[in-house]
Amino acid sequence: MATVSETTLVTTGNESGTKWWTRFLDPSERTLAVLLLMPAALLLTLIIVYPVCRLVWTSFQNLSLTSGVPATFAGLENYTLMLEDPVFWETTWNTVLITLITVPGALFVGLALALMANLPFNVKWPVRLSLLIPWALPLSFAGLIFAWFFHSEYGVVNDVLRRLGFEGVIWFNSANWAFAAICLTIIWKTSSFMALIILAGLQTIPRSLYEAADVDGAGRIRQFFEITLPLLKPAIVVALIFRTITALQTFDIPFTMTRGGPGTSTATLAMYIHQNTVDFLDLGYGSALAVVMFALSMGVTAVYLRMIRAKR
Fold first, then answer.
1. Where are the transmembrane segments (predicted)?
2. Whole-model pTM?
């Protein structure tokens, strides 16, 4: 015959099991949120957190696939070599310069294109399609097209210059001209992306604000600076975040147009990482370079996010 204590234990165990099962079938909002976010959190851990941690760990190792020696812990040796590497500083400066030139350039061109696409056309799809085409082209394909455009002998740009009475330019033999050609190509390629985001922001602005401004006698320029631009700031900041991060990771267009030449005058940090990891198979030093690029991207993102919070 079961004792009172045994009966109490069995009853308590059944109640706790029933309570757990009931909580699972009818979870609270907090429990439901955790259950729904768990797959995404596991996926992010698998494809982002683990690779980044692995990258940081590899950057502290001497790991070269051509040496035939097992990987050894090197501490800060790769980072010390980086500080003494003139090519690292040159490629980092090229990357920063490309970012400082192409991000504002793409923003201004994209804003102009978005304003044009937002005009009341009778048929709007050709205008929207013209914005999508540059964005949809692969980066390497755009680089090859513009490498042909800027070719010194049969390029379109030099042909136009000669027809206008000017001498042709040997674009890719000069560091400055090659850099200018790369920046123009990047602005052409990325301005459509900025335009699409800004166009989405323009379409959220109520038409009634412009009608009220017309009643008050405000001109188009005043409406732009007092209505359009302030209400576009969230869309512009989002576009700047994405464009700046991708600008810091610039690889395809300089690689296909100049291969970093002449010399390393147009090489970017991403190209230098590719050279060390793929060409030289120096995974330790290449990982250290990639950590620096990752830190730059996160730093820029943090600055933009702080700007957004400060404006709220």
1. 32-57, 96-117, 129-150, 170-188, 231-251, 285-305
2. 0.84
